[in-house]
Design brief:
CATH architecture of the largest domain in chain B: 3-Layer(aba) Sandwich
Number of domains of chain B: 2
Largest sheet of chain B: 9 strands, mixed
Distance between the termini of chain B: 31 Å
Shape of chain B: globular
Largest interface: A-B, 20 and 16 residues
Strand content of chain B: 15-25%
Radius of gyration of chain B: 23 Å
Shape of chain A: globular
Number of helices of chain A: 5
Helix content of chain B: 25-40%
Structural class of chain A: alpha+beta
CATH topology of the largest domain in chain B: Rossmann fold
Radius of gyration of chain A: 16 Å
Distance between the termini of chain A: 17 Å
CATH class of the largest domain in chain B: Alpha Beta
Strand order of the largest sheet of chain B: 4-3-5-6-7-8-9-14-13
CATH superfamily of the largest domain in chain A: VC0802-like
Number of strands of chain A: 7
Order of helices and strands of chain A: EHEEHEHEEHEH
CATH class of the largest domain in chain A: Alpha Beta
Number of domains of chain A: 2
Oligomer: heterodimer
Structural class of chain B: alpha/beta
Number of strands of chain B: 21
């Protein structure tokens, strides 16, 4: 069960992130999680939102370089060491992670990640009885 | 000093008759030896007998860089390659460079005209000439080299680059003449400052600078910072290389060696010849060259001619410092680059839009070429590594085609202005006028 992440390519220019985010806000797109990977010249903004398809279409219309990407989200208890446990499983299974970020709301927490081998990651998750989150569950967080 | 007084100070009447005589011989040679010219002349209903003097020059067809490219590499040579003893090539524009070939006599003419150039700049046999133009297919290095030897000066063939070594040699060998591009001269002058080199150890007194456009203010900067006389020299490989024209110490226009290269100024739109003093495109007919003689070659450089005698005594026609070009060719660090070349490289890379912008700037007196490229939305996934490798792919392709380093910057979709008419693809921030 994969979820859609909204990714936006942005040049490192002041105000550009604000423009992208207010474009989404104006259309009632609610951001659940946000992370930025940056280099000296550009960055990639990665977002988990309540309606990724709509967000994607709005951004494209407004001329942003955006894309939808399949990522895995795993629920973890909001407690010390829970992220580390997940990572240990991936490491034991030799699954390399391209990028990962996490967030927590009240007593719930979630990890979002992208790996080179999604199928292998999913079977590792299942084998270890971890809970994957779907789009609706993410929206409810 | 004047190297060849009889030719450089010839009366106009005699010059015109010499040019006419040489033109007739040239037309004879190309008509019978270069199919390209024979066909072009036949189409105009012209035979060699129709060309009697330089007034008939205007009836002859033009030659362009494209003609040379279409006949790549040796198709325009007027002599079997067994007689050719050297080739040079100018930087590739749409992948293929322009190739020029020299016979033994051509090399002798080349040495002669560069000897005139150097003498014009006040260089003589006791001088030590540090040649910091590139040696190789580019004509700059070897052109100056043979001219320097011809006048009996001490030639130091350092070639381009390696600034620390240039400055070491300049001090140790007591170089008195510097030959390089004007931007490299400025860069050397700054390096002298930065490296805190004792000025008294620099013996330079004159510089012969060319291969790229430069302004009077850059000249003043070079003259003040290096404490030398900065002389503008002009040449292009198609005509012969350096040695086509040079300023004298009065710096009032560049004396064209018109007994070898007949200049004309034309209107680049109508192609009609313009009169003395009118600005237009410079066109040359090489009347003495054997390997690759060219008829009415369009240089695309904009300038005007002055036939008045110079204070130095020379009567050769003088061209003004070039003010620009009639095409979109850019000269970056002495390398000729067309925007279309950059575009064709980008079009081969599927992950980019055909939208790009070329920005040329001069940072620390060195030309910098930056290419902004829009990332195609379809190809934007979300990996940093993917974008970085795309950037390197573009950079490597551009650099291997252009031969100079390029700064590539990936920009967002639609950040480059779309224009209704002809897209503005080039922003030149260098202050050249």
């Amino acid at each position: 069960m994969l979820i859609k992440q909204l990714s936006i390519f942005l040049e490192n220019k002041s105000g550009r992130l604000a423009e992208a985010l207010s474009t989404l806000g104006d259309e009632d797109i609610n951001i659940k999680a946000l992370t930025i990977a940056d280099t000296a010249e550009f960055g990639i903004v990665r977002l988990i939102v309540n309606d990724p398809e709509k967000g994607f279409n709005i951004l494209r219309e407004k001329g942003f370089s955006a894309n939808l990407v399949d990522v895995i989200s795993i629920a973890t208890p909001s407690e010390c060491g829970s992220f580390a446990k997940v990572l240990k499983i991936f490491s034991d299974e030799s699954i390399s992670i391209e990028y990962i970020y996490g967030f927590s709301v009240a007593d719930k927490a979630a990890i979002v990640l992208r790996t080179e081998d999604t199928d292998k990651a999913i079977s590792a998750i299942r084998k270890n009885n971890m809970e994957m989150l779907g789009a609706s569950e993410i929206s409810e967080l | 000093m004047i190297w060849n007084k009889s030719n450089e100070c010839m009366e106009r009447e005699r010059m015109v008759s010499l040019q006419g005589e040489r033109l007739r011989e040239l037309v004879d040679r190309v008509y019978f030896n270069v199919p390209y010219y024979r066909e072009k002349m036949q189409k105009r209903g012209l035979g060699p007998e129709d060309i009697k003097n330089i007034n008939d020059l205007k009836n002859l067809p033009f030659t362009t860089k494209d003609d040379l490219r279409d006949n790549y590499p040796f198709g325009m040579f007027a002599i079997p390659t067994s007689e050719i003893i050297r080739v040079h090539a100018s930087s590739g524009t749409t992948g293929k460079p322009t190739v020029v070939g020299y016979t033994r006599k051509d090399l002798a003419i080349w040495s002669e005209v560069v000897a005139r150039t150097l003498t014009c700049a006040g260089v003589e046999r006791n001088d030590f000439i540090q040649i910091a133009y590139g040696y190789g297919l580019f004509t700059g290095g070897l052109g100056l080299h043979y001219g320097g030897e011809k006048i009996g000066a001490v030639v130091i063939p350092v070639s381009g680059g390696n600034t620390a070594r240039q400055l070491q040699i300049m001090q140790d060998f007591n170089s008195t003449v510097l030959a390089c591009t004007p931007s490299y001269a400025l860069f050397l002058s700054e390096s002298i400052e930065d490296m805190k080199i004792d000025r008294s150890k620099i013996k330079l007194r004159v510089g012969v600078f060319g291969a790229e456009p430069w302004t009077e203010s850059i000249r003043r900067e070079i003259e003040t910072s290096l404490g030398i006389k900065a002389i503008d020299i002009y040449g292009l490989s198609e005509i012969i290389g350096p040695g086509v024209a040079s300023e004298c110490l009065y710096q009032k226009g560049l004396h064209i060696n018109e007994d070898h290269f007949i200049p004309e100024i034309i209107d680049p739109q109508t192609l009609e010849p313009l009169s003395e003093g009118e600005e237009g495109e410079l066109v040359f007919t090489t009347v003495t060259k054997e390997g690759l003689p060219l008829i009415r070659y369009r240089t695309r450089d904009l300038t005007s001619l002055d036939y008045g005698q110079c204070e130095c005594g020379r009567t050769l026609a003088r061209m003004k410092k070039c003010t620009g070009r009639s095409d979109d060719m850019m000269i970056i660090r002495g390398v000729n680059i067309f925007p279309s070349t950059i575009e064709s490289v980008l079009l081969e890379i599927s992950e980019t839009h055909p939208h790009y912008m070329i920005i040329i700037d001069r940072v620390n007196n060195m030309d910098v070429l930056q290419v902004l490229v829009e990332v195609d939305q379809k190809f934007f996934l979300d990996r940093i590594g993917q974008l970085e490798s795309l950037k390197h792919k573009i950079k490597n392709s551009l650099e291997s085609t252009l031969g100079i380093s390029v700064d590539v910057k990936l920009v967002e979709h639609k950040t480059i202005e779309r224009s209704e008419g002809k897209a503005k693809r080039v922003v030149d921030k260098r202050k050249l006028s």
